[in-house]
């Protein structure tokens, strides 16, 4: 028997102006979790897209169970037993779980298209792998974590032997992450093999057997995870030493910049997602909102930025009411927003990076004068942001935003929002999908904003991030403030309890 279930040998892939994969070799043993680690833009997704048949390699070979194969499209990958869980799920929202799983399957050798027996087989797979999910629920009714399980079941239903997970935990809550890790272990026990792309070293330590590290398209090393520290892996990835601590001096906050008084906001289902919510963020202060996803964070941010209407209550910026102002006016007043969904709200993917950097300011000087665009000024401004925030792309700022790697898209948005010199910076999951080096850098820039006297509202599902960055932490549960603490006086346990709905005095919230 072949030693490897999948072997990618000397893979080369070129894009305009850039070699994304430069002779990379990746060997997956049967029954292992093999992590793929690399900085943003290192070439991980490209390599996996080649394995999954979305791109063709310019050079190199792919072997499955020792035999060379040509993976010309994803159907061939499926036939070869290779399945992928993408970062952005590809599910049809008004279809049921079962319908989504059988969707696109051609009737073939013994695989039935009868929905009832399909549901039974799905229920059986769920039990076997510990993937609890209701086969009759509609996708739009289930959580993101559940949707991910549907994607996993979809692969198992197609008899996948090799499963590729592309940053699967980026969209999950801490609890869901623990469940996913248990699921991965079940998959391995049942004989599957896994390639895991993740930036989280803790997760690699927890589930992976081996780790292949790539940097700028090149293979750096493949290591035994148990024998290698997180620090060592991180340093191999970036090519130099890094520190994980944020330097943050004590600072006395200034005047209130953002004041929210008794704000109530409806959610997409028409009920109140935020209720009688009050909050103050002062200049020179980072206030972190801690909470489990879906407890009113989106409604809060959308009400402040003007994307959602307030039913009741007031929002003030520097003492002036903005509750019913247009989005554009709020931006002009100095509200910056790093949005949660970088592809929907953050960037226009078909525009160049340059155009994206001036989306909100192109009509102002120096970018236009007498109605004419000053292309030089736009280019220089964008190039400076790309340089400062290490936004890497094949054709520089002339690259299409959609061609950037996920992490580089994120860095571009952060750069744009901070360089607007905001009065109030709202950062939602600012480091989602970023590598450890970039996280360190972005955290420094956010602290710098605070040191410059700006007000920062941080919304993050990463408790570590909230604890490290914030001066003050406000816990949100069921659309209400459930507790407030100074970051220096609290810890993971206390904030975790508040997030679960247990108030500081030990009481719960009324629902
Ligand atoms: N379709 C494309 N056209 C042009 N360039 C591309 C294309 N896809 C990827 N690239 C470039 O190839 C490089 C590698 O990107 P890739 O998405 O593989 O990185 P990654 O390691 O997955 O990064 P991240 O951690 O940020 O997701 C990037 O510089 C990216 O801009």
TrEMBL record:
Question: In the UniProt record, does the keyword Nucleotide-binding occur?
Answer: yes
Give the matching PROSITE patterns.
ABC_TRANSPORTER_1, ABC_TRANSPORTER_2
Q: GO MF annotations for this entry?
A: ATP binding; ATP hydrolysis activity
UniProt keyword annotations, A-Z: ATP-binding, Cell membrane, Membrane, Nucleotide-binding, Repeat, Translocase, Transport
Its placement in the membrane is given as: Peripheral membrane protein
* GO annotation, cellular component aspect: plasma membrane
Pfam families according to UniProt: ABC_tran
The segment(s) forming the ABC transporter domain are 6-241, 258-503
Q: Where in the cell is it found?
A: Cell membrane
Against CDD domains, the record matches this protein to: ABC_Carb_Monos_I, ABC_Carb_Monos_II
Enumerate the InterPro entries for this protein.
AAA+_ATPase, ABC_carbohydrate_import_ATPase, ABC_transporter-like_ATP-bd, ABC_transporter-like_CS, P-loop_NTPase
- Please report the name of this protein according to its UniProt entry: ABC transporter ATP-binding protein
Q: Which organism is it from?
A: Anaerotruncus massiliensis
């Amino acid at each position: 028997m072949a030693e490897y279930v999948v072997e990618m040998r000397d893979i080369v892939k070129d894009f305009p102006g850039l070699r994304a994969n430069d002779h990379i070799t990746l060997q997956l043993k049967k029954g292992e979790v093999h992590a793929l680690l690399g900085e943003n833009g290192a070439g991980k997704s490209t390599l996996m897209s080649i394995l999954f048949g979305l791109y063709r390699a310019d050079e190199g070979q792919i072997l499955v169970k020792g035999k060379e194969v040509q993976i010309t499209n994803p159907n061939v990958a499926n036939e070869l037993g290779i399945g992928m869980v993408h970062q952005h799920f590809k599910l049809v929202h008004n279809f049921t779980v079962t319908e989504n799983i059988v969707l696109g399957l051609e009737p073939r050798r013994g695989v039935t298209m009868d929905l009832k027996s399909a549901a039974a087989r799905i229920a059986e797979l769920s039990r076997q792998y510990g993937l609890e999910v209701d086969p009759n629920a509609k996708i739009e009714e289930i959580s993101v974590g559940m949707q991910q399980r549907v994607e996993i079941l979809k692969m198992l239903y197609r008899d996948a032997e090799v499963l590729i997970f592309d940053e699967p935990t980026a969209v999950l809550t801490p609890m869901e992450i623990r469940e996913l890790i248990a699921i991965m272990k079940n998959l391995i026990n049942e004989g599957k093999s896994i390639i895991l792309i993740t930036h989280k070293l803790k997760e690699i330590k927890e589930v992976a057997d081996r780790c292949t590290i790539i940097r700028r398209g090149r293979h750096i090393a493949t290591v035994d995870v148990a024998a290698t520290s997180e620090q060592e892996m991180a340093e191999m990835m970036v090519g130099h030493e890094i520190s994980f601590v944020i330097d943050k001096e004590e600072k006395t906050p200034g005047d209130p910049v953002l004041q929210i008084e008794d704000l109530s906001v409806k959610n997409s289902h028409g009920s109140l997602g935020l209720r009688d919510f009050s909050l103050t963020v002062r200049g020179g202060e980072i206030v972190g909102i801690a909470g489990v996803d879906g407890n009113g964070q989106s409604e809060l941010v959308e009400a402040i930025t003007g994307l959602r209407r307030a039913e009741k209550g007031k929002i003030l910026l520097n003492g002036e009411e903005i509750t019913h102002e247009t989005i554009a006016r709020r931006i002009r007043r100095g509200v910056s927003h790093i949005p949660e969904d970088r592809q929907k709200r953050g960037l226009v993917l078909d525009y160049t990076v340059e155009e994206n950097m001036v989306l909100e300011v192109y009509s102002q000087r120096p970018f236009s004068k007498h109605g004419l665009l000053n292309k030089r000024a736009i280019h220089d401004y964008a190039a400076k942001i790309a340089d400062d925030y290490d936004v890497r792309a094949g054709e520089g700022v002339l690259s299409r935003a959609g061609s950037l790697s996920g992490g580089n898209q994120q860095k571009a948005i952060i750069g744009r929002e901070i360089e607007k010199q905001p009065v109030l910076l709202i950062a939602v999951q600012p480091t989602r999908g970023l590598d450890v080096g970039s996280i360190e850098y972005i955290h420094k820039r956010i602290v710098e904003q605070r040191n410059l006297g700006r007000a920062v509202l941080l919304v993050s599902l990463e408790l570590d991030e909230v604890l490290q960055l914030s001066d003050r932490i406000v816990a949100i549960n069921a659309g209400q403030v459930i507790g407030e603490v100074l970051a220096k006086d609290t810890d993971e346990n206390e904030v975790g309890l508040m997030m679960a709905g247990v108030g500081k005095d030990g009481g719960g919230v009324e629902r």
